[in-house]
UniProtKB/TrEMBL annotation, chains A, B:
It comes from Cupriavidus plantarum. This is Histidine utilization repressor. PANTHER family: MANNOSYL-D-GLYCERATE TRANSPORT/METABOLISM SYSTEM REPRESSOR MNGR-RELATED (PTHR44846), TRANSCRIPTIONAL REGULATOR PHNF-RELATED (PTHR44846:SF16). Residues 18-86 form the HTH gntR-type domain. One of its GO terms (molecular function) is DNA binding. Keywords: DNA-binding, Histidine metabolism, Repressor, Transcription, Transcription regulation.
Length: 255, 255
DNA sequence: TAGTGGTCTAGACCACGGC
DNA sequence: CCGTGGTCTAGACCACTAG
């Protein structure tokens, strides 16, 4: 194995050998992927890998730490490293900011704010925002358009405790979601995707036939554990889809 | 700042101070989150942080590297580290293995294999699997059930070049997707989610009314760059949803 | 007590980009 | 040229777990 004095392992280097930690990582990943090491099997200890690859412990440690972050191995201090049980066959789908996504496609983005009001929380909204039924909440409805075509009907509820000035904003230039992102950034988010039919009113607002199935993206966000917003985004099924591309090595590349 | 001789920063330690790299990470994350450092702003160099926090460069490097992995900063070798442009408001949704998911809920899982055949690739299938139209491909159709209720109609095409024995398998005990996972593990995957209407035949197979909107999950997988399988999973909208919960600090926790 | 992983240090060499 | 980040080393101390 080549050492510190060896050719570059720099990002840009064209035909450079992989970084040492990456070589160790690849080796372990291959043993797991090939089935040579089964789930639950013990992975060689850091010290064993140090001697086997003739690298320092920090290098082996980085390889194992990153594999653990990816969920391929489980590390237990004082015990050892093990092949993760049952490669949780989960994959990731990306949910991107609509405005950025549309503009990145080079298309025109517009947002019609249909409604901004203060209402009493329904049972559902109160539960979602962790408030009492009947408490005052902010409510907004907008239609987002791509090149003039409605792409999303956004039905949003906002917790006045964390965004008291929401109701007094001028939403002609900044859409509600954008305002919240800038002023009440969240640190936790929950998403749910459903396929449903639109109501007659929703179909009208989205300028689509009522028979068209829709994608419903429901999102809740929190900041420091306090609910910020609860929003239902309704997309005509023939005008919107969620997608992702994922490479095994760790970094997802979305397209 | 406390040093090597300081109290534990071990995982298990109850009231131990955070690890030094974590403290540096937290500091930078706070400056960004609070808005003190705007997108595009330069983050102090590793050397500056080393002197400011009186820690070693490796420690600062780990903090910055992990922030870069999370997409909060962008690092350019030879130039510097910068606050990431407009936190690409993307979030992740998990797509989990259906069989595991159902069993994890404590429900009964079953799979009816409707069909396994060899067919000539249509234009669409040929494009998806990177084959020529009319080339021979394997085709299977199954219905997956949760407690007897159809949850997914799986329409799968398999590249015979990478899974030549697919057609000769006995799928009474192992379902097609499971066979592929075990024998032709993939290293790249693409997912797309749509909301569509089921055809009459599909509605019958799923034992659902034809008017019910459906979630269509289309997946393609590759191994070493070669397409493995192209599968369309159709879910009745009222019996299935995709969901995720994401914490800001890095590791998504799905529920 | 011996082995494990978790963290940290104080150096080091390298490729890159801007000056 | 210098400062930047990317990587690597050969040690070190610690807490935890098991025999």
């Amino acid at each position: 194995m080549n050492h510190a004095a060896s050719p570059a392992s720099q990002t840009g280097a064209p035909n450079a050998p992989a970084a040492l930690y990456q070589q160790v990582k690849d080796y372990i990943a291959r043993e797991i992927q090939s089935g040579a090491w089964r789930p639950g099997d013990r992975v060689p200890s850091e010290q064993e890998l140090v001697t086997r690859f003739s690298v320092s412990r920090m290098t082996v440690n980085r390889a194992l730490r990153e594999l653990a972050e990816q969920g391929r191995v489980v590390r237990v201090a004082g015990v050892g490293t093990f092949v993760a049980e049952h490669k949780p066959q989960s994959t990731l789908l990306s949910v991107v900011n609509l405005q950025d996504e549309i503009r990145m496609r080079g298309h025109d983005y517009a947002c019609d704010v249909i409604l901004v009001e203060r209402v009493a929380a329904s049972i559902e909204v109160a539960a979602a925002l962790d408030l009492h039924t009947g408490e005052s909440v902010f409510h907004s409805v907008c239609v987002h358009r791509e090149d003039g075509v409605p792409i999303q009907l956004e039905d949003r509820y906002v917790n006045p405790r964390v965004a008291p000035d929401f109701i007094t904003q001028d939403f002609r230039n900044t859409q509600p979601g954008e305002y919240l992102l800038r002023n009440v950034p969240y640190d936790q988010v929950e998403h749910v995707v459903d396929a449903i039919s639109a109501t007659a009113e929703q179909a009208t607002q989205l300028e689509m036939p009522a028979t068209q199935p829709c994608l419903l993206l429901t999102r809740r966000t929190w900041t420091a554990g306090v609910p910020v917003t609860f929003v239902r985004c309704l997309h005509p099924g023939n005008r919107y889809r969620l997608g992702s591309r994922f490479r095994a090595d760790g970094n997802p590349a979305f397209g």
